[in-house]
Amino acid sequence: MLLTKTKKYLFTDSRYIERAKNTIKKGIDVVDTTKLWKNPRELKENWQKTLKKHRISILGVEESNLTVTKYKLYKKISGKIKLTDCSNKIEDAREQKTPQEIKLLKKSQSINEKTFLTIKKIIQESLQKKTAITEQEIAWKIKELGNKFGAEDVSFDPIVAFGKNSALPHHSPTNAKLKKGDVVLIDMGMKYQGYCSDMTRTFFTAPPTKEQKEVYETVLKAQQNCIKNLKAGITGKQADHAARQIIENAGYGEFYGHAGGHGIGLDIHESPALSENYTKKIRANTVVTAEPGIYLVDKFGVRIEDMILVTAKGPKNLTKIEK
Question: Which residue numbers in the chain have pLDDT < 70?
Answer without folding.
Answer: none
